[in-house]
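User: Predict the structure for this protein chain, please.
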Amino acid sequence: MTVSQNRPRPWDGIIPEEEIAIYRKAGWGAPSGIGKRPALLVIDVQYRSMGYEPMPIMQAIDTMPTSCGEYGWRAVPQIARLLQTFRELGAPVLYPYVAPKKPHDQGQFERKVPGVMSVPLRDYDFVAQVQPISGEITIPKFQASAFQGTPLASYLVGLGVDTVVVTGCTTSGCVRATAVDACAMNLKVVVPEDAVYDRSQVSHAVNLFDMASKYADVLPTEELIPLLRQHRS
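Assistant: Here is the predicted structure, written as structure tokens:
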């Protein structure tokens, strides 16, 4: 995979230059590239993660504590562009999503974040601009990783997938957990840096840097789309 080495990175000004130099010297972050059969994962892009209209996050969480506010809405157009590309290429699209929780679903995560147990049912709907269409696979999940306790791995094997493009939220949570698990399964992993989002911009940047160093190729949607078309031609 050929990507620009001179453009700004999401972690510029957040990860100290001396620490970036350590990773470079040790050889971390080599590109893994895109395989012949990529699939798009759209993770948790539901109203519960962003609210019903763009607004500053502190305002958004007044009405929806699980919202990432404006940060989520900024990512939606990029996710929509990737969806259009995958659909045009006839490549698989899968939607791992947070399933509504019943009392018996409460686990350690829910004890850390009790508010997730009281999300209204309608807030679990997919955001209209990037909702699934007929034939695309939706996968309810209850843990951070889209692989944990779900049939995602079986679907990917059946579809012959060798690369996952991971979009959605949160960068530091479900996106990262899914990327780590996908890498552990020897899948190539790509994270479009502007098609994922997080309520914390520091966590967003730090986790993109860490994924780029260890588990995934991280690049903007603008650079990724031509590469997808090239590899599928």
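The beta strands are 38-43, 93-98, 137-141, 163-169, 188-192, 196-197, 217-219.
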